[in-house]
Amino acid sequence: MIASSVSLTSLALVWKSWDKHGTVRGLHICGTLPSSICVSVSKQQIQKRVEEPQPRDWSGLIQVCSGNIQKISHNTGQIKSLLHQLGSDHETSAPQDKLQQLQHYTNQLAKETNQHLKDLGALAPPMSPSEQRQQKLQKERLMSDFSAALNNFQVVQRRAADRQKETVARAKAGSRTAGDGDLNDHLVTFEKEDEWGQAVTQSQEPGITVEDLEEIRERETNIRQLESDIMDVNQIFKDLAVMIHDQGEMIDSIEANVENAEVHVNKGTAQLQKASYYQRKSRKRMCVLAMVLSLVMVVLIIIIYQALK
């Protein structure tokens, strides 16, 4: 098995390791540890970590998405730095391996964030219109930040793919120059096991070694993985466009409900004003009637008093 180890930065890395036939043999995680320390974990441990309960409430999902977006932006900057190291006169396999690992890990973060955004859309909205507006603004800001981070990440993804292809092309050109011309047909791709076996057999010719073939095969495997990750990001962009469209419809629904509520409030206010007007008018009538009755009573009392005299 061909295992990989790198000098660590202050972020976690997760990557796969392959054997010479391109079969995934294990996963590795590097965390915030001292330099050049790598921790390998079993598939059972990885599965246990994947099966850990994910946040399902609004605040928990928002917090995880925000953290992932920050990691994506940070990792994109790290990938840019690694790209500057590729193609130099002192190039080694370490930057290539670290770039591949970091790129794939960042791609997994993007997929996880995309799923969490979908989970946000599946949550029942709050009853209060003010809370609905607040959540709408939070999600809008989150999707905007995620889209910007994805754009930057995809740019460095494509640049990394181009650099990987250039590296493979240089390796193939060197092998063709140093080895027999008959090897040209075996240095394009190694999709099948028999092609790999034939290439290894012919590598006994002077000028090319098994290590050269293994390096070329590994680079081509990395390129295929990188292209697959780029397709994943394209799909995430499509999902994000759908979510933005759905968010717009939800916003229209919220605004319509708010407008309806405002109409009802205005109608209620008008009715209250009318009721207040009628109440004041009724009070005036009662006052006038009371004054008339009082006057009649006074007149009657005077008449009765005069009659008794």
Automatic annotation (TrEMBL):
Coiled coil: none annotated. One of its GO terms (cellular component) is early endosome membrane. It holds the Pfam family SNARE. The chain crosses the membrane at residues 286-308. GO terms for biological process: autophagosome assembly; intracellular protein transport; vesicle docking; vesicle fusion. Keywords: Acetylation, Coiled coil, Endosome, Golgi apparatus, Membrane, Phosphoprotein, Protein transport, Transmembrane, Transmembrane helix, Transport. Signal peptide: none annotated. The keyword Protein transport applies. It comes from the Eukaryota. SUPFAM superfamilies: t-snare proteins. One of its GO terms (molecular function) is SNAP receptor activity. It is found in: Early endosome membrane; Endomembrane system; Golgi apparatus membrane; Recycling endosome membrane. Its main location: membrane. Residues 164-184 are annotated as: Disordered. PROSITE patterns: SYNTAXIN, T_SNARE. It is a single-pass type IV membrane protein. Residues 213-275 form the T-SNARE coiled-coil homology domain. Belongs to the syntaxin family. SNARE promoting fusion of transport vesicles with target membranes. Together with SNARE STX6, promotes movement of vesicles from endosomes to the cell membrane, and may therefore function in the endocytic recycling pathway. Through complex formation with GRIP1, GRIA2 and NSG1 controls the intracellular fate of AMPAR and the endosomal sorting of the GRIA2 subunit toward recycling and membrane targeting. This is Syntaxin-12. It comes from Knipowitschia caucasica (Caucasian dwarf goby).
